[in-house]
Design goal:
The protein is an alpha/beta fold and 339 residues long. The protein folds into 2 domains: 187 residues, Rossmann fold, CATH 3.40.50.620; 120 residues, Rossmann fold, CATH 3.40.50.1220. Helices cover 30% and strands 23% of the residues. The protein has 9 helices and 16 strands. Strands 1, 2, 3, 4, 5, 6, 10 and 11 form an 8-stranded mixed β-sheet that branches. It has a 5-stranded parallel β-sheet with strand order 13-12-14-15-16. Strands 7-8-9 form a 3-stranded antiparallel β-sheet. β12, α6 and β13 form a beta-alpha-beta unit. α6 packs parallel to α9. The longest helix has 17 residues. The chain is elongated.
C-alpha cells in the first residue's frame, strides 16, 4: 500500500481539544496544498466520550476526515496504550505524515510511536514544508537556538513531527461540508495490551494569575536578573501591570521560575501586546518564542545586547536599578514613569 495523506493526532483536554491541534490542522492543510496532495487531511482523536462536539470542532479547524477512538481506558493519557492503538491504526491506513503537538503527552507519545513503527521523529519543530520530492522538511532549532536545521526522513514512513504549541500561531476556521467521521474499535488491541503503567487519575495544579500564552503584557527576565530578590521585584512589576511573568533558561535553573514560564523554542511561544524583557541577552532560542509580540521593550546593561536588534524601545540600564523605579511610579499611578 502506498503511504499517503497527512494525519494530525489531536489531543483531548479538560476544556475540549488543545489549541495546538487546531494549529496543526491549519498547517496540514497548507502542506497539502503546497504538495498538491489528494488524500484528505485526517484528524485522529483518542479519548473518552467523544461526541459530535469534537467532530464539529475538528471540521471547523480544517479536518477533511476524522477518526475517533473512544474508550473509557483512553480517558487519561497512557503512553504505551495510546502508542499501541496508533500503531495498529497507522499500519492499517498507512499515512505519509503524522503531526502532533509537542505537549507533555505528545512529547512522550511521538518517540514511542516512532520506535514502534521503526521510523524517525523530528521533535520541537518551529516550521515545516514539503520539498520537491514530497518529503517533509522539519525545521528544528539547534545549538541553543542559534541555528535552524532542516531534518528529513527520506527512507522511512510515516514521517513524524511534533510542534510546540503557539509556534505556528494561526488557527483557521474552514467553512466546508461535513466530512467523514469514523470510529475505530480497539477491543482487540486492548486484549493484547501489555502496558505495565496505568494512569489512575490526574491532579490539576490551580493556575495563579494570567496564563503566559494568554497575557496581553508579559514581563520576562533572563540571566541579568542576578538574585531571587530582584526576581521577586520583576514578579511585582508584572502583577502591577496585570501581566504574566516569563523567563529564559537561567531563572528556571536557579529555581526562581517554573518550566511553564519559559519562553523560546524549548518553552512557550507568546504574542502579547507588550513584551518587557529584563536582563535578557536575546539568544535566537528565546527570540523564536517572542518574535510576534507587539511592542517590545528591552532593558539590558549591555548596549550591544542582541535583544536590542528586535526591540522597539531600548533601555541601557541595570534591571536592579530600573525595577523599583518602575514599580514605584506605577503604584503612584503617575502619568509618566521616568526610566
Amino acid at each position: 500500500m502506498t503511504h499517503q495523506g497527512i494525519w494530525v493526532v489531536a489531543e483531548q483536554t479538560v476544556s475540549g481539544i488543545s489549541r495546538v491541534s487546531f494549529e496543526l490542522l491549519a498547517k496540514a492543510r497548507e502542506l497539502k496544498e503546497q504538495g498538491g496532495l489528494q488524500a484528505p487531511v485526517t484528524a485522529v482523536l483518542l479519548g473518552e466520550n467523544l461526541d459530535d462536539y469534537y467532530s464539529a470542532k475538528l471540521m471547523e479547524a480544517g479536518a477533511e476526515a476524522i477518526i475517533l477512538v473512544d474508550h473509557p481506558v483512553l480517558r487519561y493519557f497512557q503512553n504505551e496504550t495510546y502508542a499501541a492503538v496508533l500503531k495498529s491504526l497507522v499500519e492499517e491506513r498507512q499515512p505519509s505524515i503524522i503531526l502532533m503537538g509537542a505537549t507533555a503527552a505528545g512529547s512522550d507519545l511521538a518517540p514511542t510511536l516512532g520506535a514502534k513503527l521503526h521510523t524517525g521523529v523530528s521533535a520541537h519543530c518551529v516550521d515545516m514544508r514539503l520539498n520537491e520530492e514530497g518529503h517533509l522538511v522539519a525545521v528544528v532549532p539547534a545549538f541553543g537556538g542559534k541555528v535552524l536545521g532542516d531534518i528529513l526522513c527520506t527512507n522511512f514512513r510515516p514521517q513524524i513531527a511534533t510542534v510546540r504549541p503557539g509556534i505556528l500561531g494561526k488557527v483557521i476556521c474552514f467553512m466546508h461540508k461535513q466530512c467523514p467521521v469514523e470510529r475505530f474499535d480497539i477491543a482487540d488491541i486492548l486484549a493484547q495490551d501489555q502496558s505495565r503503567v496505568k494512569a489512575l487519575g490526574i491532579t490539576y495544579e490551580e493556575m495563579k494569575g494570567v496564563p503566559l500564552e494568554e497575557a496581553e503584557i508579559v514581563v520576562a527576565g533572563g540571566f541579568g536578573i542576578e538574585s531571587k530578590e530582584i526576581w521577586q521585584q520583576l514578579e511585582t512589576l508584572a502583577a502591577v501591570l496585570g501581566g504574566a511573568v516569563g523567563c529564559t533558561r537561567p531563572p528556571l535553573d536557579e529555581g526562581w521560575a517554573k518550566e511553564s514560564q519559559m519562553i523560546g523554542t524549548s518553552g512557550k511561544s507568546i504574542r502579547p501586546k507588550v513584551y518587557i524583557g529584563m536582563g535578557i541577552s536575546g539568544a535566537t532560542h528565546h527570540i523564536c518564542g517572542m518574535k510576534d509580540a507587539g511592542l517590545v521593550i528591552s532593558i539590558n546593561k549591555d548596549e550591544k545586547s542582541p535583544i536590542f536588534d528586535v526591540s522597539d524601545i531600548r533601555i541601557t540600564a541595570d534591571a536592579a536599578t530600573i525595577l523599583p523605579l518602575l514599580i514605584e511610579g506605577l503604584q503612584k499611578n503617575e502619568d509618566d514613569v521616568i526610566c
